[in-house]
Amino acid sequence: MPQPDPQQQAETAGSPAAGPVDAGPDPRHAAWPAAGELPVATISDAMERFGVADGIRPLWRGAALSGRAFTVWTRPGDNAGLHAAFEQIRRGEILVVSGGGDETRALIGELVAEKALALGVGGIVLDAAARDVVELERVGVPVFARAVTPAGPWKTGPYRLGETVAVGGVAVAPGDWVVGDDDGVAIVPAGRVDDVVAATHELLRGEGERREANRRLVPRG
């Protein structure tokens, strides 16, 4: 009789199949802009206003993130997939969770954020809810979510790891660039990052010129 695949069992039942991967940040993306280096609004402009995750906001002012997406698709209100993801996520990656937009159960709180911090996770983006907002800011891992609720999650699955998911109406594939600031979150397909970064810098130069022109304006009369 064929033996079941342990990894498949883990993805279905919520039991991690392997230990944490601590290979450091992916060197292929070392040159991607750091958190806070480029404004999300201008990045969106550089993508013809596409790519912004609708309704996903930072949980405190000044939260910012930038990194490669590690995706989780989970049933609404259940965080078993997040704990499984912690067994595979690389340092600096952004945990991106498609939770169906559910606002009734918080998928993360203080303890999950502390675990993410210990593993070097670059941030968490939830199309779902979170809780323990004051403690999340204290821990310092950037968290972006659709809502806040004190109600805790279920922990039974099912879930999927490493698949293309939808977050805030935007498709996110594993390895896509995820960037967030006070305005929200943008997703840039991995194959377009260099072009989008170049276009963003060009737009910022144009904005700088207009800003200087504005400073030279004087009132009439």
How far apart are the termini? 91 Å
Reported by name, the CATH topology of the domain at 52-189 is Glucose Oxidase, domain 1
Strand content: 15-25%
**Into which percent range does the helicity of residues fall?**
25-40%
Radius of gyration: 19 Å
What form results from the Cα inertia axes?
Answer: globular
Helix vs. strand class: alpha/beta
Q: Tally the helices: what do you get?
A: 6
Describe this structure in words.
With 221 residues, the protein is an alpha/beta fold. It is built from six helices and 13 strands. Helix 2 (40-46) packs across helix 6 (193-215) and helix 4 (110-118) runs parallel beside helix 5.
For this entry, give a set of tags.
single chain; 221 residues; Glucose Oxidase, domain 1; 27% helix; disordered N terminus
Short note summarizing the structure:
With 221 residues, this protein is α/β, with parallel strands linked by helices. The protein is built from 6 helices and 13 strands.
Topology of this structure?
Layout: H1 6-13, H2 40-46, E1 57-58, E2 65-74, H3 80-85, E3 94-98, E4 106-108, H4 110-118, E5 123-127, E6 129-130, H5 133-139, E7 143-145, E8 147-148, E9 159-161, E10 165-167, E11 170-172, E12 177-181, E13 184-188, H6 193-215
Parallel strand pairs: 2-3, 3-5, 4-6, 5-7, 6-8
Antiparallel strand pairs: 1-7, 2-9, 2-12, 10-11, 12-13
Helix pairs in contact: 2-6, 4-5
